[in-house]
Every structure is written in C-alpha cells, then in structure tokens.
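Entry 14. Ran structure prediction on the chain below.
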Amino acid sequence: MSGKLTVPIPEPGEGKRGESGYLGYLLRQASNAVRLAMERAFEDLDVTPPQFLVMTMINAYPGASGADVARLAMLTPQTISLIVANLEKSGRLTRVVSPSHGRIQRMELTESGKTLLAECRQRTRLLEARLAASIPPGLEPALRHWLVEVAAGVASGEERVERTNGVS
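Output, structure tokens:
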C-alpha cells in the first residue's frame, strides 16, 4: 500500500464546485474559466488577457496614465508597467509625457494596437454570446447589476449584510 489517500475531485458543477459552493469560490471558478477561454481565443495573436484588458481600457480612456489604467484594470501599478512596456515594445501603444505634469505619461493605442484590439474584441464577442446564451431569459440585467454591486462593494470594503429580496 502506498499510503496515499485518493479523494475524487469533483468536476465544475459538482459538490462544492456546484451550486452548494461558496459564492466567492464560484465567482473565481467562473472567472478562471472565462480567462482560460480568452487565452485559447488569443493564443495565435500573441496577446494575453491582461494585455487585452489594458488595451481595452486605454482605448476606452485615451490619454489615461499608468495609474489610471491600474485602477481601471484592478491591477497593480507594477503589473501595468510591465504590460505597458511589452505593448510599447511590440508597437501596440505609445506613451507621451503629459504637458500638465512632467512625470505622468499618457498612453494611446497605435494603429497596430487598435487593429489587434478589434480582432480580440471580435473573438471575445463570441465568448460573451456563449455566456449570455446560458443565462435564463430576462435575468441578464439583474446578473450584470449584481456583479457590479459585488465589485463595487467588495472593492470599497463595504459590507452588505441585509438582503433586499426579503431573505436573511
């Protein structure tokens, strides 16, 4: 006997990986599944999901600084610095010194970066369509609202003890 105890590991949707699991774990499990799907969708484009996220934020908020993008992307400034350096080295974005503050560098996507972002968005639209198709009819707005509330509440440190649906 080898002395090793073999415990069957449940698949997603089973045991604590299913509906009886902790909400935080289930959110993490879902997030990781989406990230893996994005990695697979982008593998031939030489772009990572964090790079896609940063390019998305820079495109949505042109002229944002590294600190701005770090807050938007919920990543550390050090991580953003590394991602931005790699995107700049590959010709996907440019940085210019802010005219109003010499230490702040504003970022914008290059044409190459915008083209790559468009291709990434096309691929994520397919993934998002698959996600949306699995949501029961009529529940997507409530789900989106709940996810935003969770992110805003957890990020601010706010604790919500009461429930608005009458269940305690």
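The chain has a mean pLDDT of 88. Will compare against last week's run tomorrow.
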